[in-house]
Design goal:
Blueprint lengths: L7 E8 L3 H12 L5 E9 L5 H6 L6 E6 L5 H10 L5 E4 L5 E2 L3 H11 L3 E11 L5 E5 L8 H6 L11 E3 H6 L11 H10 L3 E13 L9 H15 L5 H21 L3 H15 L3 H11 L1 H15 L2 H24 L1
Parallel strand pairs: 1-2, 1-4, 2-3, 6-9
Antiparallel strand pairs: 4-8, 5-9, 6-7, 6-8
Helix pairs in contact: 9-10, 10-11, 11-12
Length: about 325
């Protein structure tokens, strides 16, 4: 009896100066079950020993691309995409984690969804100790363009998407003109051409509290508006306004987490005024007077919103990662 062919997938992982997290990420990516897994790591001029560590890897599944200067997320992903030789490509940030069956589950979902050529999964947000603090479910399978035009419904930035390699190249990869929101902009172009097949399970862990470009709120606002000017066509006005509200609330969380009282209060006041959300006047006052309390209350609410079965499913694959980390730490 001839064994069925195993699907071939390449993960593109850009990295810069996060060696400890990169090691963990690569372990989970290379540990994917029931697929022939390859990885292209694009090292963005790291200065923390990442280059030497990558060059010392003795694993034929890993291809390393070194940039002497950082080119940005779009260019790094595109550089990785140029080295992909498999029918399927997935993207993973260097500090996010995949469940062992992520890619296999996505390929099965694509097989079951007519017209699908790409996939996203559900995610959990985790803290530094990999404990679940929030979650995001993926959109329904099928035509996702109108939902995406309202706001970015694809969880975990670039880390949950798997797409046919020829489709990723057909749309031109990621637009280097977007210094952030480049993943959102790319998903919109992909959604114009193909249906999505979603896996409504928590198969990606997305770290929160990260110190990176996602904390540049003004840049995020400007780039998000640029994406919408370029692509918002199909969505109706009511859905567009709901999407704008979701994004404004998302941005307001950043100064709140950072303890920037005036900026957080201004953001919530603006939401109250623009979207007629009267409760946000109270949010603005709390952010100004006691930002720690306001953020703590919101964080507790996000944890409470995680369904018990969802949290248990994520814990089933996150707990072994924590155990492995403890063993490695004790051995050092």
């Amino acid at each position: 009896m001839v064994e069925p062919a195993v699907a071939r997938v390449t993960a593109v992982v850009p990295t810069r100066n996060r060696l400890a997290l990169l090691r963990q990420t690569l372990t989970m990516v290379l540990g994917q079950r029931d697929v022939d897994m390859q990885v292209v790591v694009v090292n963005e001029a790291s200065t923390d020993g990442t280059a030497a560590w990558l060059d010392g890897l003795d694993d034929p599944r890993v291809t390393v691309v070194h940039h002497d200067v950082p080119h940005g997320a779009s260019a790094a992903r595109n550089a990785g995409l140029r080295h992909v030789t498999t029918p399927w490509v997935a993207f993973c940030d260097d500090d996010d984690l995949w469940a062992p069956d992520k890619c296999a589950a996505q390929l099965a979902a694509i097989d079951a969804e007519p017209g699908a050529r790409w996939s996203a999964t559900g995610t959990v947000s985790v803290d530094a100790d990999l404990h679940v603090v929030g979650h995001q479910r993926p959109p329904a399978s099928g035509d996702v363009l109108a939902a995406l035009e309202a706001h970015n419904v694809i969880p975990a930035g670039g880390s949950s998407v798997l797409v046919a390699t020829d489709l990723a190249r057909e749309v031109g990869g990621f637009d280097a003109g977007f210094r952030c929101c480049e993943d959102y902009e790319c998903w919109l172009r992909i959604a114009q051409r193909a249906a999505i097949a979603s896996v409504d399970r928590p198969l990606v862990a997305y770290r929160v509290g990260r110190q990176n470009r996602s904390n540049d709120i003004e840049l995020m606002r400007v780039m998000h508006e640029a994406v919408l000017r370029k692509h918002r066509v199909e969505v109706d006005d009511e859905a567009a306004e709901r999407g704008d509200l979701v994004h404004a609330q998302y941005l307001a969380r950043f100064p709140l987490r950072q303890g920037r009282r005036v900026a957080a209060a201004r953001a919530y006041f603006d939401i109250a005024r623009r979207f007629r959300q009267r409760t946000h006047y109270a949010h603005a006052l709390l952010a100004l007077a006691v930002p720690g309390f306001a953020e703590g209350r919101r964080a507790r609410a996000e944890r409470a919103e995680v369904p018990a079965l969802w949290a248990a499913a994520a814990e089933a694959w996150l707990a072994p990662v924590r155990d492995r980390d403890r063993l490695e730490a004790s051995a050092r």
